[in-house]
Design a protein that fits this description.
Number of helices: 1
Shape: globular
Family: Belongs to the pirin family.
Strand content: 35-45%
CATH class of the largest domain: Mainly Beta
Radius of gyration: 20 Å
Protein name: Pirin family protein
Strand order of the largest sheet: 1-19-16-21-14-13-12
Number of strands: 24
Organism: Marinomonas profundi
Distance between the termini: 45 Å
Pfam families: Pirin (PF02678), Pirin_C (PF05726)
Order of helices and strands: EEEEEEEEEEEEEEEEEEEEEEEHE
GO molecular function: metal ion binding
Helix content: under 10%
CATH architecture of the largest domain: Sandwich
Amino acid sequence: MSSSILKRIPLQMFWPTFDPFLFCAFHNDTYPKANASMGPDAPLNNRPLGQDFGGIDGWRMYHGKTVPGFPAHPHRGFETVTVVNKGFVDHADSMGAAGRYGEGDTQWMTAGEGVQHSEMFPLLNEDGVNPLELFQIWLNLPSKNKMVPPHFTMLWNEDTPVVKVPDSQGVETQVKVVAGTYQKVDPSPCPPNSWAADSKNDVAIWLIDLPENGEWTLPAAAANLSRTLYFFEGDKVMLDEASGSINEAFVLKSDSPLVLRNQGKNARFLLLQGRPIGEHVEQHGPFVMNTRAELQQAFQDYQRTQFGGWPWSRHDQVHDKSKGRFAEHGTEEA
């Protein structure tokens, strides 16, 4: 095994993550054509609605009962970074903010002191399939920022830099830079209180497309970072002199470069990197704090305030079918 690879881990739906990251889910669903309610035009009576994670026929309703997705639920103490490669997400929250994003967009939401939001997956194509592919990444907040005001930022696909890197044969690898500078190319700004907002924390979120027969070198970064490369599409690659297969995570030595050589069809990777926060974590479901007392306070506060309540007519809020991609930030700035 390459000296740059510290560990290899098989991938399932929920991917292994390391400080400062808390969680990463890969949603990959091929939904059938849509019905008039923006749900799947298919029978749902064979599914455990409300908890449909089984992947029957290649798709899931998750916690949705009419439209797939995740109806209103609370968060406190961390950030969600939702990177949508295919399909759409309808966002609504307790701040009165709303949006529809997808097809390459990213939403970066700081939950901070507390927010409710829903994330539904509207199916808009009534004539054919509705593929959905997204990552939801949870990035921790340091204790000093656990209780900052909630905030969300849209990183639209058109504003997210993609760096094209040709190898010696002219084959171009594409690196989409959601967070973290690459080859002096800076990403769109993330929320101001994020761990990623300070460049000294070396947070990187990159999507890497390595074409057939392509070669690309992941550059060395600072020492002692968490650095994990997830191989989620393709066939076989070489990582230095080690062979890697699809659906593997590679925990890497952060201050060593790694040469990737594609030996099969187009290969795709997600890179998560960052300096560990190094604080004790107490987590229960949607709340991530530093102490058990803070966690208990989070539950009490949510029961008392509902983190601002729910201003929408339905908990699985979806927006008008005719709307395109948009963001309305309520009382918060973009």
